[in-house]
Write a sequence for this structure.
């Protein structure tokens, strides 16, 4: 007893025997029923754990492998769940929004405009400009990309810009213009058609006559004076919007610019159109021109127009696209009407809003508060909508911008990235499954039968492995895709990738099969009289299973890279179906590489992240299955 | 050595025959009728059919497939590679330049790759776990997870478009004859594709070099050498490195093989007029004879690389002679 107290200096000297007894019982109890937390030695590990448990434990211990798994799960969620949440219309294009910079702040107006009160809001493709009641100008959104030197920043106001004394503003597609109370003209953004430079004769006019309205369209600027005269300049060579018929000049009350025309309201309540002839808008209904109805207001969208007469009746004409001409039923009188690029809207006398037309950018999805808010003014332009309520607050809805920018056809990069990911990940996975099946069959048959079968199969493997992959893959793709319909092309790509990828794995399987076959446990099984086939399937196959798993994982990463490379060259997944590779297909021009960087950096990084996460998993798996390798 | 080489060469013959059959079958399976594409489109309706018949006869398309194959092989072996419809010149003349461009590019890349992976791989193995080791491991991991076109585009973006140091792609034109200035500018155009391919090759092979060197360093004879009191330099370079050279030569040959396949994409990105670039062009223009020849050419290059690998084994590993 004394000896023990010497060895255990912590034991209380006045401890009774009973307590001691209880303690030793306690420790015995612990030893019997509570699991030890100490790490296991190699021998214990093998005795207590199945190999699978060891592998999983080793895998979790390598932090990079876990990072890879988490990253890969996130990528899967992004592509597969994302594509359910964000459906794609592969054929939809919006040329007006081509090559827009990444950014989603088109609707995030500065709070100052609420304080100062909105007089006017006008939007371009990627920005909006507001004029407040105090005559100040505020700009928000994203700078449209410009490649020529004939453009300026839309945000940078010059030092002599008369904030507080601005009378009118107007935003075109990629530029905006303003005019001050003393008749000075300012322009910002694209100037590729000299739309920001006022012609000399107009300059004289605006010095002497007050301006009623500023106009801006696609590369076109215009000024409507109080005396009813209108002047248009800019990109008018093809559209002839600058030629104002003499019958209209001096009688114009209100005007709007559409891509091909200028629509005007004349002082006698009729509508006039000039510019190109023979399109949807120039084809005005007769009653609007012969004076039988008196128009009080009108608005235009990209390819249709709508007028309100003095009796509160609506007249609509133009293209049937996007259901523009289908006015929904509503109760109340129309106070104001407005048109975005592909939709129309009405403000009723009870403060309600009615919207219809295209909804590609949520133009029809009004905010929740719209139901119980009474609006007094609405500004709809291109795809952005801003409604001012009685109390001065602003509701904004419509196009928020593209987080990842847009491509040459004005398609959202994020949506295409999500759906492209779904396609790329699936193509890679199925290609990998095909090649594993082939490799397993050829490797096992070759290693199992040996002899001439082995010889023939291995020579065949030599043949396939000797042909460089890329040249063969693009040749095969041309042959196969030339003879199958477009919709099956994607399956053909999976098959091609699968059929070219198996030889390495087949060789590896065969080599390990031969190695395992000579081991003692096979000899033991044979001595016990186990059938040859069962030795193969039950004893040898599980031993090479680990090898297959690791190589499948690493092979999946390379299948992803191959799919993207094939699609990049234009021999893979065919557009308009997106894949990460073919999103980069159009990025081979130096203007795209330099200025529209989001079109190649973002899908490129997506491939890198996916391949990296899979490679991390593969490396960690290999280390987990072969602890000797990780000691290196 | 010679006997071994002869044996390897003979075993290659069936492989080469099988490859030619596969390539021939592939091109025969291509959509479109080569004879119809080669007749003069300006001909009148009634003349066209006769011209088509004549062209089929000339191209030998009416023979059965095996006969066509034997005729094609015989013509190829005698140096007649056919007519390139895209260039309207014999294929033999068309492929000379792409072949030269690809070879020069790949040789430079291989030299650069070896110059980097040998010293760096040895340092990584000797100073395991050091900062240098970790840096190159991360480099390798990211490098081989990257699509080659993405590396190419990034290099164009940085060096050609932002820094404006190098041309973004394509090749120089010999307007004033092929003088020194021409060759200098030619080299300048080659730098970016070379850098791009070198990064890919290094990323793909450096960790195998490291592992081979670690394997060699863990052998018993290294302990013996150290206990003899040899300097660390001698132990590493004349004992470990010499023995690691056998797996390393395999790695280098594998990477040359990968280069032949992968340079097609890099050539496309930089518009470097090599075999891959020309193949894409020929496929898009349905130039059958050019496609068939280019496929054959890249395969033959790959097989040559394999044979070179065998000779290298014989040189670095004297034991192979005994087999």
């Amino acid at each position: 007893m004394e000896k023990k107290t010497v060895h255990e200096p912590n034991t209380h000297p006045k401890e009774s025997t009973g307590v001691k007894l209880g303690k030793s019982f306690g420790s015995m109890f612990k030893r019997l029923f509570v699991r030890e937390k100490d790490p296991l030695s190699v021998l214990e590990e093998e005795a207590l754990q199945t190999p699978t448990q060891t592998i999983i434990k080793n895998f979790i211990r390598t932090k990079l492998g876990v990072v890879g798994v988490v990253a890969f799960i996130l990528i899967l969620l992004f592509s597969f769940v994302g594509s359910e949440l964000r459906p794609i219309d592969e054929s939809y294009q919006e040329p007006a929004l081509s090559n827009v910079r990444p950014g989603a702040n088109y609707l995030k107006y500065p709070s100052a405009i609420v304080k100062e009160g909105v007089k006017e809001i006008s939007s371009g493709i990627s920005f909006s400009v507001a004029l407040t009641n105090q005559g100040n100008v505020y700009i928000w959104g994203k700078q449209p990309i410009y490649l020529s030197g004939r453009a300026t920043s839309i945000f940078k106001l010059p030092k002599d810009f008369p904030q507080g004394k601005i009378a009118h503003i107007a935003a075109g597609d990629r530029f905006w213009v303003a005019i001050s109370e003393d008749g000075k003209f300012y322009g910002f953004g694209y100037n590729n058609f000299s739309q920001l430079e006022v012609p000399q004769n107009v300059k004289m006019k605006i010095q002497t006559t007050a301006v009623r309205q500023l106009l801006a369209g696609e590369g076109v600027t215009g000024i409507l004076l109080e005396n009813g005269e209108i002047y248009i300049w800019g990109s008018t060579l093809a559209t002839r919007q600058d030629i104002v018929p003499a019958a209209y000049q001096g009688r114009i009350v209100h005007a709007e610019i559409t891509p091909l025309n200028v629509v005007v309201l004349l002082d006698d309540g009729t509508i006039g159109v000039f510019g190109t002839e023979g399109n949807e808008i120039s084809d005005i209904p007769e009653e609007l021109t012969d004076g039988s109805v008196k128009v009080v207001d009108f608005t235009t969208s990209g390819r249709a127009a709508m007028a309100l007469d003095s009796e509160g009746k609506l007249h609509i004409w133009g293209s049937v696209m996007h259901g523009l001409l289908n006015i929904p039923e509503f109760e109340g009188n129309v106070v104001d009407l407005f048109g975005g690029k592909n939709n129309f809207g009405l403000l009723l006398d009870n403060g309600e809003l009615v919207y219809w037309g295209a909804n590609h950018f949520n133009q029809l999805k009004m905010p929740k508060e719209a139901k119980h808010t009474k609006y007094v003014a609405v500004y709809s332009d291109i795809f952005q909508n801003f409604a001012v309520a009685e109390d001065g607050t602003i509701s904004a809805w419509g196009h928020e911008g593209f987080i990842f920018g847009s491509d040459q056809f004005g398609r959202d990069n994020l949506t295409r990235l999500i759906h492209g990911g779904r396609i790329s990940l699936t193509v890679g996975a199925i290609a990998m499954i095909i090649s594993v099946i082939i490799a397993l069959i050829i490797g096992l048959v070759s290693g199992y039968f040996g002899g001439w079968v082995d010889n023939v199969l291995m020579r065949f493997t030599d043949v396939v492995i000797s042909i460089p992959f890329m040249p063969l893959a693009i040749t095969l793709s041309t042959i196969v895709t030339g003879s199958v319909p477009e919709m099956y092309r994607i399956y053909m790509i999976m098959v091609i990738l699968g059929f070219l990828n198996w030889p390495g794995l087949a060789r590896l399987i065969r080599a390990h099969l031969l190695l395992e076959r000579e081991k003692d446990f096979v000899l033991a099984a044979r001595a016990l009289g186990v059938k040859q086939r069962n030795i193969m399937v039950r004893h040898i196959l599980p031993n090479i299973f680990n090898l297959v798993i690791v190589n499948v994982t690493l092979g999946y990463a390379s299948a992803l890279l191959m799919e993207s490379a094939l699609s990049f060259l234009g021999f893979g997944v065919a557009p308009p179906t997106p894949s990460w590779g073919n999103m980069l297909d159009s990025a081979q021009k130096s203007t795209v590489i330099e200025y529209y960087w989001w079109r190649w950096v973002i899908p490129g990084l997506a491939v890198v992240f996916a391949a990296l996460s899979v490679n991390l998993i593969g490396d960690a798996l290999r280390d987990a299955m072969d602890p000797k390798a990780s000691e290196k | 050595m010679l006997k071994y080489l002869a044996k390897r060469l003979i075993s290659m013959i069936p492989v080469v025959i099988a490859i030619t059959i596969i390539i021939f079958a592939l091109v025969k399976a291509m959509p479109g009728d080569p004879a119809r594409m080669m007749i003069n489109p300006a001909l009148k309706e009634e003349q066209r059919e006769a011209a088509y018949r004549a062209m089929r006869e000339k191209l030998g398309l009416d023979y059965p497939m095996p006969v066509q194959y034997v005729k094609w092989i015989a013509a190829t072996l005698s140096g007649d590679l056919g007519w390139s419809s895209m260039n309207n010149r014999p294929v033999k003349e068309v492929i000379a330049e792409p072949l030269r461009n690809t070879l020069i590019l790949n040789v430079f890349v291989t030299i650069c790759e070896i110059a980097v992976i040998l010293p760096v791989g040895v340092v990584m193995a000797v100073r395991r776990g050091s900062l240098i080791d970790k840096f190159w491991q991360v480099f390798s991991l990211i490098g081989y997870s990257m699509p080659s076109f993405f590396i190419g585009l990034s290099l164009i973006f940085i060096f050609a478009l932002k820094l404006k140091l190098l041309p973004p792609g394509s090749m120089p034109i010999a307007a004033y004859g092929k003088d020194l200035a021409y060759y200098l500018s030619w080299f300048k155009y080659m730098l970016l594709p070379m850098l791009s391919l070198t990064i890919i090759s290094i990323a793909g092979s450096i960790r195998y070099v490291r592992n081979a060197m670690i394997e060699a360093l863990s052998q018993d004879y290294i302990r013996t050498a150290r206990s003899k009191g040899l300097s660390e330099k001698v132990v590493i370079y004349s004992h470990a490195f010499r023995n690691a050279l056998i797996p390393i030569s395999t790695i280098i040959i594998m990477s040359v093989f990968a280069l032949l396949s992968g340079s097609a994409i890099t050539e496309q990105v930089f518009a470097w007029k090599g075999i891959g670039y020309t193949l894409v062009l020929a496929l898009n223009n349905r130039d059958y004879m050019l496609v068939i020849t280019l496929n054959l050419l890249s395969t033959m290059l790959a097989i040559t690389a394999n044979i070179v690998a065998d000779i290298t084994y014989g040189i670095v590993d004297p034991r192979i002679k005994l087999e």
